[in-house]
Amino acid sequence: MSRTSVLDAPATTALRMDEVVLTYPDGDGRITAVDHVSCVIDRGRSLAVTGPSGSGKSSLLAVAATLTRPDSGHVWLSTRAGEVDLAEVGASRAAELRRAEIGIVFQQSNLVESLTAREQLEAMAWLGGRPSRARRTEVRERADELLERVGLGGMAGRSVGALSGGQRQRVAVARALVNRPSLLLADEPTSALDTESGATVIDLLLRTAREFDVALMLVTHDEAVARRCETRVRLVDGAVSAE
User: Fold this and answer.
1) For a Cys-Cys bond, which of 12, 56, 73, 206 suits 42, CB 3.0-4.6 Å?
2) Multiple choice CATH, 1-101+185-243, 3.30.750.24, 3.40.50.300, 3.40.30.10, 3.40.190.10
3) pLDDT at 130 over 90
């Protein structure tokens, strides 16, 4: 895809993946995890990535998260500073983008056990630099606002060890939003939760995408969850299926 075609895309486009290919070493050869996949997500909208186990869903998300660099293709992200091709950035710039522009929610909440719910968000906001007193106050207010939005306003000062699995995952969603990203990535975020807690987290993610004007890529094996997203991509053996 040419640079001109990206700039000509609608202003609401947050992520555009074009002909992405990702391979891994496999003995004397290589195995293709993502096979010429293209997709688009607009701000405020959600894309479900579905498919059987081993189909390349998490690999595609890892490329969008700058955790894995693709062999070829483009991954255009609309940031506050303009368009950037994630497939071309170095490790340092990728880490900076994950901190400022890309929120990630994993299968496990990956919270720091020694921190409170509020401190989880504050720690994410402080990565990359020592905050001023004014910045610390701003971040604390932001953290409390987000915890209130995810239904945990009364638990901001509580240790995450005292929270249920569903509550911990809601903290993880709030943490992913603390730096006002343009892209939110969720990799099977309910796989470790019971049905009721999982439904709450999915509701939260979809509502978050709309209310915070964030593009959401949601990897899921649950067809009922996928149907709730505005668009979807089904992968089979790394390629987009025609189903």
Assistant:
1) 12
2) 3.40.50.300
3) no
